[in-house]
Amino acid sequence: MATDMPVTELHTGFSSPGATPTGWAEGRRRVDEAEVFWLSTVRPDGRPHVTPLLAVWQEDAMYFCTGPEERKAKNLRQNPRCILTTGQNGLDGLDVVVEGQSVEVGDVVELEQVTNAYESKYGAHFTAPEGIWFGLSDAIRARKVLLYKVTPTTILGFGKGEQFSQTRWRFA
After folding, report:
1. Does 132 fall in a domain?
2. Apex CA 124: angle with CA 121 and CA 127, to 5°?
3. What is the pLDDT of residues 17-32, one digit of tens each?
4. Which of these, 3, 62, 106, 109, could form a disulfide with 150 (CB 3.0-4.6 Å)?
């Protein structure tokens, strides 16, 4: 079930003269195609924590998983707000920042749909016995790892290249 299209705004203070906002279709494509995301959470003492992980976009939300005793899981128990970022390590392309609040997923149907999305996106890395994350699908389905859903409130797109732009997509 898809939600309404987000409201798209160009932040002119951080964009080149004459820049136009990046369309949501392009922002969404970049999120879909990204392989690695960086998750930012806040430790109980207020210090930031950032770690790379795999994530998928499914049904207008980001999903990621982690072990129940990992630092990010402990942080999210105290403060569910988080940010997922992805992009290019260079001066061209589009960097994307997804802001929202995480919720632990417990619904069996949703777990299965998201696990299928992981397998589809990451392919043999998840499904082949020699894959680096082989077995993670079974761990998600068996709830041996935690699956989190982040419904975005805001997504930012930082366009880089001949023109620089900062696009904000606001979600209801």
Report:
1. no
2. 95
3. 999 999 999 999 999 9
4. 62
